[in-house]
Amino acid sequence: MKARILLILAAAAFLFGATAYAHHSFSAVYNVKDMIKLEGNLVQFVFRNPHSFVFIEAPDQEGKMQRWSLEWGGAAQLAGQGVQQRTLNVGDHVIITGQPSRAPGEYRVLLKTLKRPSDGFAWGTKQGETFD
Amino acid sequence: MAIILIAIMVLAAPAFAQVDFSGEWSVKNHEDCLTNSCQPPLGDYLGTPLNAAGRQRAETTAESIWGIPEYQCRPHSPAHQWRGVGGARFQKEIDPITRELTAYHIQWWRSLDRVIYLDGRPHPPAWAPHTWTGFSTGKWVGNTLVVTTTHLKDGYLKRSGPQTSDMFTMTEYFTRHGDLLVTTEIIDDPIYLEEPFIQSTTHQLNINTQLRLEPCTTSFDENGGSDPHFVPHYLPGKNPFLKEWLEEHKWIPEAAAKGGAQTTYPEYRLALNDATRPSYRPVNLSKSAVDVRKAVTAESPGDGEVHVMPVQGNVYMLVVDGSNVAVSIGPEGALLVDTGSARMADKLLSTVRQLLTTTTAPAPNKCVGSTCPTIPWGWSSPFIDSIVASTAAPRPIRYIFNTSAAPEHVGGNEKIAFAGTYPGRTGAMIIAHENVLNRMSAPTGKEAPTSDKAWPTDTYHRDFFKLSDWFNGEPIIAYHEPNAYSDGDSIVFFRHSEVINAGEILSTVSYPVIDVAKGGSINGVINGLNHILDVAVAETRSQGGTWIIPGHGRLCDVGDVASYRNMLVMIRDRVQDMIKGGMTLDQVRAAKPSMDFDGRYGSETGPWTTNMFVEAVYQSLKKL
């Protein structure tokens, strides 16, 4: 039984390992010492490798509505955490937290947690719900 | 016995002193990382011989530039590529007849195929495109393969800041020690480095892996917001994150962290201590082998000649004494986009006619005897006509598009047009935006700046103009780019050949010329480049696909246009910020808002100096 678990883990690492690498550095793109919270409606969900993106419309600090780009894990890595193509849908009202971009003028966030109050769906709140 | 021994030695020795690099290699370590692939933190330029321009470029570059559509899938820059995750694969290309090794092909996880030619071929002309991997040739020195690479696009020296210009060259040494491969690179980029930069990476042969492909598709801008052409960057002196890493490494002197050639030598330690500083003597630095002025000029030589560069489909790029002309050659004749300067008209016409004869020359006979297709009676007699034949008269020049009224683009109009013909007309049709005609002509009774025989015969005033019929088998469309170089700019798109002539809004040899008095503006140029980026599609990973012919300089693609656009946005935003701060033109000039690009695109002399460019940017922004 133990051998079978190890085999499954090895196979999973083989399948998903190569897609887990970031094509850019998170710590260089995002201010990892900062955290912001946004609440808005989902307008686009791109479930793909190497990273997925969630786009929501939410107000910025001045109250102006913006299209925010939320960087998420790769499809393979998220699939291992139970997230699928139709887990999120256009129109979903979500509350997210994340680390904002370092670059001025960008509306871009590294997603840390996501909650959908309508049905209680949450990601990033349980151990292991991270990505690289 | 001695003869036998000599014979064994001679026959047993390989024909060439070559080591085999083929196989899959995993990154083992390098100077910046002793375990695997990693990158320095923001602002860490330790051991990097940055010059002042290179430092400013590093400090103003935002890592999230990776999120713009044109950069999301670009391969790693060669300076970093060896250190990227995923390892490398070497494959051999063998001549099937002689069985000689003629080339190595190298692939990385995030890359295109990189070829290293070993067959002695020369490097392409300077007006040929630059690519992410460049053009590489190799020679054996003992058991080490020495590789010389030119024609590289701009990119990054290291992740998180330091950049490379598109003028850099690279010399690499590949040495194999058993199952270890050491690649040593000398990166020579005088635009951003005080002296050539040397680094090495060690790989280990890995027989238990197969190199995979990084999945990457670009379908949107990752940067958020409402501007699809957003270019993230920091204004000079306003990047707040550069010293963040030093807070965790307080023992590192800030001056050394800023890089520079002297900081890379052991002697520099003397300069950091009050007691030893008097005895510090800077070392003599190595000189770059790249002559930037010569290299830039070579992309667009003002040599009084016409150089032919076949591009794609029907289209050729003609490098005409410093200005580019696009020409479509096909069974319906020739269509030119721009006509060069007046003094080059005869040579241009001669070249176009030579190209036209390629469409009327007899095709080579590929039919022998009864195997000929379409000959029901089984004999090749009809094909004898293609052997006993002569070249028919060239097809005519039918159309000319003018991308602007710049003299180096309309100077040959009269001669070229009247050497051509269009049914029902005398001479070829000349098409341009109506403001080109306005600039070239004058109201009745007033003296025009150009001969009426050179004027556009057909003008348009809306967003675009398309030929009513396909020409040489494809649609050809001119798009107006308002207030760019002037108020009459067009780009011309060959929709099947996938080639765009950009006219004056793109140059690889200078900053864009902006004639503010004639309606030009920096924002118009940027908008025009953005439009090209919207229309053009890279073949893969921001390279190839739609080719873009600049008004001056080498043939470009999406990656090149994006880099040029990025530069102009950065300079525009800097000048805008200075204007917002109340600075006068003289103060803006003194602040050198284009300093980190001047070595590449600037000029102190000539018809378009850096000062003139900065003034044009300033004036066009002040008008807003």
Write the layout of secondary structure elements.
The complex is a heterodimer of chains A (132) and B (624).
Chain A lengths: L1 H16 L8 H4 L6 E11 L6 E7 L5 E7 L3 H5 L13 E8 L7 E9 L4 E3 L9
Parallel strand pairs in A: 3-5
Antiparallel strand pairs in A: 1-2, 1-4, 2-3, 4-5, 5-6
Chain B lengths: L1 H11 L10 E8 L21 H9 L17 H4 L6 E7 L6 E8 L5 E4 L17 E7 L2 E7 L4 E2 L6 E2 L4 E9 L2 E9 L8 E9 L48 H4 L10 H4 L20 H7 L7 E7 L2 E6 L2 E8 L2 E5 L7 H16 L36 E5 L5 H4 L2 H6 L10 E5 H7 L17 E3 L3 E3 L9 E5 L9 E5 L4 E9 L14 H14 L11 E6 L5 H23 L4 H7 L3 H7 L8 H13 L2
Parallel strand pairs in B: 4-5, 15-16, 16-17, 17-18, 22-23
Antiparallel strand pairs in B: 1-2, 1-11, 2-3, 3-4, 5-6, 6-9, 7-8, 9-10, 10-11, 12-13, 13-14, 14-15, 19-20, 20-21, 21-22
Helix pairs in contact in B: 2-14, 11-12, 12-15
Number of domain units of chain B: 2
* Number of helices in the DSSP assignment of chain A: 3
The assembly state of the depicted protein chains is heterodimer
* Strand portion of chain B: 15-25%
Give an account of the 3D structure:
The complex is a heterodimer of chains A (132) and B (624). With 132 residues, chain A is α+β, with helices and mostly antiparallel strands. Chain A contains 3 helices and 6 strands. Chain A has a single domain, classed as Nucleic acid-binding proteins (OB fold (Dihydrolipoamide Acetyltransferase, E2P), Beta Barrel). Helix content of chain A is 19%, strand content 34%. In chain A, strands 1-2-3-5-4 form a 5-stranded mixed barrel. In chain A, β5 and β6 form a beta hairpin. Chain A starts with a helix and ends in a 9-residue tail after the last strand. In chain B, α2 crosses α14, α11 runs antiparallel to α12 and α12 packs across α15. With 624 residues, chain B is an alpha+beta fold. In chain B, the strands form 4 sheets. Chain B has a 9-stranded mixed barrel with strand order 1-2-3-4-5-6-9-10-11. A 7-stranded mixed β-sheet of chain B has the order 12-13-14-15-16-17-18. In chain B, β12 and β13 form a beta hairpin. The chains are: A alpha+beta (132), B alpha+beta (624). At the A-B interface, α2 and β3 of A face loops of B.
